[in-house]
Amino acid sequence: MIVSGKARLAGVLGWPVSHSRSPRLHGFWLEQLDIDGAYLPLPVAPGDLEAVIRALPRMGFRGANVTVPHKEAVMRLVDHLDPLARRIGAVNTLVARDDGSLEGRNTDAYGFFENLRQGCPAWAPASGPAAVIGAGGASRAVVAALTDAGVPEIRLANRSRERAEILAADLGGPVRVVEWSERAGMLDGCALLVNTTTLGMSGQPDLDLDLSALPQTALVNDIVYVPLETDLLARARRRGNPVVDGLGMLLHQAVPGFAAWFGRRPVVSDELRAFVLS
Ligand code: ATR
């Protein structure tokens, strides 16, 4: 990759950041679209976050992605906060405005929804209740997306019930909190099941969830993408349910940031999926 003195700049702020797939993902698009730009890993310790955020636009950066552990802290450091980011309680994308101020957005809800829409065009949000497992940061984006898409009911089960209650109170929407011990029963009549917990990820235990009450037509999605085929998705596929894996959420959430920084809207292709996994 060769960049000129006029190259547009962006990157990902995290600590650590070496595991992030975002530089490869954005680098693929920059090369594919032949854009004079660069997207860099930006390792920033929590104590340095404020100084770095202030410096970014002054250093000519068009913006950045924000990842663990900065997604919440960065909310109070931006000049403008997108209403959706405020609702979700996290910022994952920064965009510098022409006047040098910084806007904080959240594109995780968009990424989640685009992954379902493109991964399973037959699924209609209004077709029935959704069951969501987990109430962490990822769940907040998922619940916001489903609410905004018009899903009539969201049944939410989390190991710590209190966290689910807080999420429901913060986000409003058609959320009904279900006891963790009742999670298998809540699948009855659902049109969608989403795992937002870390269970099923390599090195973690699998999600313990009996699928027998879930209609065979229900779409099953896991936001875990390492491995691509989690135990949950494998079991759902075996019983005939349509499934969508979690990699697409990572890829699609990157699209609005790339478009804002580099001026072209990139496409999520099979080639990109294979490249990011390689
Ligand atoms: P993220 O931002 O990726 O969502 P998180 O905020 O740490 O990560 O949330 C992790 C989610 O996985 C939570 O819903 C968590 O449940 P608790 O709120 O009860 O902690 C869930 N989770 C993690 N390990 C779990 C386990 N062993 N059993 C059940 N749920 C688990």
Characterise the protein shown here.
- The chain is of the alpha/beta class.
- Helices cover 34% and strands 18% of the residues.
- The chain has ten helices and twelve strands.
- Helix 1 links the parallel strand 1 and strand 2.
- Helix 4 packs across helix 8.
- The mean pLDDT is 97.
- It binds 2'-monophosphoadenosine-5'-diphosphate.
- Residues 134-139, 158-160, 163, 196-199 line the site of 2'-monophosphoadenosine-5'-diphosphate.
- It comes from Paramagnetospirillum caucaseum.
- Homodimer.
- Keywords: Amino-acid biosynthesis, Aromatic amino acid biosynthesis, NADP, Oxidoreductase.
- NADP(+) binds at residues 134-138, 223, 246.
Ordered list of secondary-structure elements with their pairings:
Layout: E1 8-14, H1 22-32, E2 37-43, H2 49-58, E3 63-66, E4 80-81, H3 83-88, E5 93-96, E6 102-105, H4 108-119, E7 130-133, H5 137-149, E8 154-157, H6 161-171, E9 175-178, E10 192-195, E11 219-222, H7 231-238, E12 243-244, H8 247-253, H9 255-262, H10 270-277
Parallel strand pairs: 1-2, 1-3, 4-6, 7-8, 7-10, 8-9, 10-11, 11-12
Antiparallel strand pairs: 3-5, 5-6
The structure holds 2'-monophosphoadenosine-5'-diphosphate.
2'-monophosphoadenosine-5'-diphosphate (ATR) binds at residues 134-139, 158-160, 163, 196-199.
Summarize the structure.
With 278 residues, the chain is α/β, with parallel strands linked by helices. The protein contains 10 helices and 12 strands.
* Beta-strand segment tally: 12
Count of helical stretches: 10
Mean pLDDT: 97
Percentage of β-strand residues: 15-25%
Pathway: Metabolic intermediate biosynthesis; chorismate biosynthesis; chorismate from D-erythrose 4-phosphate and phosphoenolpyruvate: step 4/7
EC number: 1.1.1.25
Catalytic activity: shikimate + NADP(+) = 3-dehydroshikimate + NADPH + H(+)
Protein name: Shikimate dehydrogenase (NADP(+))
